[in-house]
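Internal ticket - ligand job 375, protoporphyrin IX containing FE:
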Amino acid sequence: MHIAMAPIQPYSQLVFLFLVLADRVPGQWSPSNFRPPKPRPYPDWSIETTKPLPYRAFRYGPKYHVTMGLRAAEHEDWIQLDNHYPRYHADKAARLAERGQQIAKTAPEAMPAALELLDELTEYLPSRYPSLFRRTAVGIDNLWSGESFNIAERPLKEDPIEICGRLIQDDLALMIERPDGQYYLLSGAIILPGFWRLEDKFGMPLSEIHTSGHVPQFREKLERGMLSFFTRLKCEAIYSRNNYFIQVDDSLAWSWSIGSEDDPNISWQTAEKNRAIEHHWFRSERQTLRRLPRTGAVCFTIRTYFHPIVDISKEDYVPGRLASAVRSWGEDVSRYKGKERYGDVLLGYLDGEHQKQLERGLDMGKEEDLRQYPW
Ligand code: HEM
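stdout (structure tokens):
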């Protein structure tokens, strides 16, 4: 087949090619019949005793590779909840009361997708976490908090993305494909983000979200792969990726060390240098991506795990591996992650803890048997 092409930008050319391959017209979606399989109940899940999954998603040096780092996942593992739920729930409620639409909002164009996401969670959560949620005739009840959500009424009392955000520990973003083939952030409940603000990125396409944040090597290493990934993502698939940051304050919702949440200029430059190790926190996100069948929107979930460095350093191999990972960051990654502000204190501490583990007889040959990324 010969395809006549007008003189268009390389970016649009790529989108066009991917869509021809995927047999779709950009920005148009025919609802898919796919239904995610009903998840099994999470084994022995309890809001008191189920601990956060111990993601320790950092690798030994010598070189830090910027990659998409996506792995195929199972639908039943879509949303992960644990005994930190009460704290996340309380923090989210307080933040929503204080900041409202600054942190959770939906553009009219994305409303069908936000309603679909709410339907999906209303189906998924009571099956996966039956001790926490109950499906009702009109929606979903939270058995722990006593909240009852009627998702059938119109108009809904709240923005559906806000309800989604209240139900789980994750933050959420919906990416909508427009006729130019790009994916735009048009609905989000970005309530506990740490280092970025929904207001700054709302309405932006995927590339601009990342270039405006100076994500290292985005153009060279990530952009093409991400574009192709979003265009081709199928409803049947679900992917996850993990990242990690160091934070030098204990605030889950907003890391005030880089500046006030209301200050337009935030930067690692303003963070206090060399804070004591007790103020160093390990912040790690588990993100998932899937395409919703009814609207074709791509749902991006961001679950943050947040622990003091001194706590995770008690785990075998962690201080040695984390020190090696931090040393492997190139200049660009170091700048992005703020290493200059905490590197000396952090590495001094991690080296000391690693040395103690070696003196206790830690067998460096055994680590590969014990762990598999991202653990
Ligand atoms: C294939 C999917 C994606 C990949 C591979 C990806 C990759 C990355 C990477 C490598 C970073 C740097 C921090 C890190 O290591 O995680 C980053 C930051 C970020 N990403 Fe993504 N991302 C993806 C999807 C998304 C989506 C859908 C959103 C929509 C909200 C998003 C929003 C952000 C934001 C806000 C930042 C922080 C930027 C800043 O510092 O201002 N990403 N992403």
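Auto-summary: The two ends are 48 Å apart (CA to CA). The beta strands are 71-72, 104-106, 133-135, 139-142, 148-150, 171-177, 183-189, 239-247, 281-291, 298-308.
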